Amino acid sequence: MESTKSLDNVVVFTSLLLDVSITLGQEIYTPRSLRLDTVKVKKRVAAEGIEFLTKTLPRLGHAMQMALSGDVPLDSTGFRKEAGSEIPKLFGNLFARVFSRDGWVLQTPCTNSVWLLRQILFVYYKYEIPNDPSLERKVLAQFKETESDLSRHVDCQFCHLRVQNRQFDNVIYKARARLKVLLEDFDVRNILPRHGPGAVSTRETGPDKYTFGRINERIASIYPWDEYYYSSLGHLCDDYQTFQGLPVTESFARVILVPKDSRGPRLISCEPLCFQWIQQGLGRALSYYLEHHHMTMGEVHFSDQRLNRDAALLGSITGNTCTLDLKEASDRVSVSLVQQLFPEHVCSALLATRTIATTMPDGEVVYLKKFAPMGSALCFPVLALTTWALLTAGIDAKARKGLLVYGDDVIVPKACASDAINILESVGLRVNLNKSCINGLFRESCGMDAFRGIDVTPVRFRTVWSSTPSAEVYTSWLAYANSMYVRGFINAAYKIADYLLAVYGSIPMDSDLQGPFPALVFYHPDNVAPRTRINRSFQKKEQYVRVVVPKTERKEIDGWKMLLRFFTEAKRASTTPIYDRTVSQQKPNQESPLDTLEPFCVRVYTQRGREKLRYRWR
Asked: Closest Cα partner for 12 from 513, 447, 459, 455?
């Protein structure tokens, strides 16, 4: 076992290289090549720091991905190349089994080498190390630049959206007509509001979220306060004096930056409390409606990524479908586009529940030309529906067979890929051609990376290691160790387990992970078996193991507000409306909300991101 508790990323990485050499065999990845590659990696990490693992190697990985899915050769800029070749010396034995000496994909590339290269190059791509302040400034500047770019598509007169390519003018009319038919029975008022898990711009947390301290006139015009913000008329009567004194104001969103990957942080716009409350209800109702309506069923989906994943895997075999990645997707759906596409009764609700401005970290207020930034519960369904409407309106019904939309992950038949890109970009959306897979036999969608019918999705480390016991580190690195072991990277798995055991002592083993606790799927000789006992009450064997429990706060608030929380949070199937009278011509859903309740206490509030480890008998 490792004598130190501080994880050495280079040691874990070189253990992974050893596993790669074993997988390929010494005839392909010779001991000499392994030794030279290990020395090169150590030298470059010593010179460049961990950025070599988190930025430089992923950059080479993206260049390989572009070569596999496009009509470009491998670009190995930043790496020494073999003499007279475009193949980098680092991991050259593997690259030579995928690319010719001039950098083009071989006629029959080795899929096993593609999988192993992707594992090596992307293993630290998502590592959440602190970002350089310059990257944060770049993300904020890009947010403002996108707003400026949307000016070309905003402030247009009704039915005269400013389209870049005039040949697609007719697409707007057709898309609007399709949405009018699709949404004519959607009742925007038939929603169940609720709070989301994230922060709000007005900074309320936990039990304070059930005290709505201000009124927004735009929301109240469609969602009256007495109907959607109180548990009953009795609640309103008891709180009437407070209600009369509530200020009527326009609240703004608030920008925060959260870790994303080596390229920089992700920008999230926290919504005001009263907006988030309605957005969650409207967004869930709209998502459910679209997944079950006969026009969008099977093409637009929100709760299951398997359709896109399976389609990407199949497309990597046939090459008949393409995966399109939308760049800055939620930031590029302009409010003008929403006004042009959505029928009046839905559009009025969407516009009433969007914030008109957001506050930047430096205090600057930016008035939004986009419909909603990431952070709004409506940006995802509106983006998906907008994309679907435009593509189905602009592409022939027979040609578009196989169209799938999951947020900003779009799958289209290869025959209409060019038209799909032109249609989307004509209204201000942007297709990221570097991440889209159009040619070749590499496909990527919804977390599935596939090449020639083989799943080549790598294990990516995300949570930064800490020698201080932590629930997040414990569960994350256990998952990494297990994933490495299942994929055959035994040395890397055991090396991670060494570090875990040095910090946490014994870790239970569960070969099929059926137990209700984090565990290793493999045997480690230095691991000490946890204590066991026979629970006579349940007549079963139990282990004394670590479990992850949420940090909770118990607080007594006004009874009416606790009742409001019960009505909105206690139903297990919260994504399914209690009543549904229109979807796919189904009969009304007569299920009682009390039929699907799970144990729930209105006095207990979970503190998000504050989990802790506790020993329990399990």
From this structure: 459
* Cα(276)–Cα(194) distance, integer angstroms: 8
Tell me phi and psi for residue 3, to 5 degrees: -80, -20
Task: Give the residue among 420, 421, 403 at the shortest CA–CA distance from 412.
Answer: 403
pLDDT, position 14 = 96
Which residues 6+ apart lie within 8 Å of 482 measured at CB? 493, 513, 520, 521, 522
Range of the domain at 67: 9-127
- b (16+ CB within 10 A) / e for 243-273: beeeeeeebbbbbbbebbbbebbebbbbbbb
Residue 228 half-sphere exposure, CB side, CA atoms within 13 Å?
Answer: 26
Cα(358)–Cα(381) distance, integer angstroms: 20
Assigned domain for 592 exists: no
Q: Which residues of the chain have pLDDT under 50?
A: 1-3, 155-160, 572-598
Does residue 2 fall inside a structural domain?
A: no
Task: Clarify whether residues 212 and 344 are in a common domain.
Answer: yes
Residue 147 and residue 107 share a domain: no
The residue from 127, 154, 181 where one domain ends is 127
Phi, psi dihedral angles at 330 (to 5 degrees): -70, -25
Q: Count how many residues are written for the chain.
A: 618
What's phi and psi for 368, nearest 5 deg?
-90, 130
At residue 327, the pLDDT reads: 87
Residue 340's contacts (CB-CB under 8 Å, 6 or more residues apart) are 156, 158, 159, 161, 172, 176
Give the phi and the psi of residue 469 in degrees, each rounded to 5.
-50, 130
- Whole-number pLDDT of residue 529: 87
Among 104, 127, 150, residue at a domain's last position: 127
Question: Total structural domains in the chain?
Answer: 2
**85 part of a folded domain:** yes
**Whether residues 143 and 244 fall in one domain:** yes
- Do 248 and 279 lie in one domain? The reply is yes
pLDDT one-digit tens code per residue, 304-317: 899 999 999 999 99
CA angle 65, 71, 72 (to 5 degrees): 65
Same domain assignment for residues 239 and 272: yes
Q: Are 405 and 300 in contact (CB under 8 A)?
A: yes
> In the chain, how many H helices and how many E strands?
21, 16
Do both 220 and 353 map to the same domain?
yes
Judge if 120 and 198 occupy the same domain: no
What interhelical angle do 344-352 and 169-183 show, nearest 10? 90
Instruction: Answer whether 292's CB lies under 8 Å from 584's CB.
Output: yes
Structural element, H or E, at residue 51: helix 51-51
Distance CA 188, CA 219 (A): 12
In a domain, 602, yes or no: no
- Residue 259, SS3 per DSSP: strand
> Does one domain contain both 113 and 169?
no
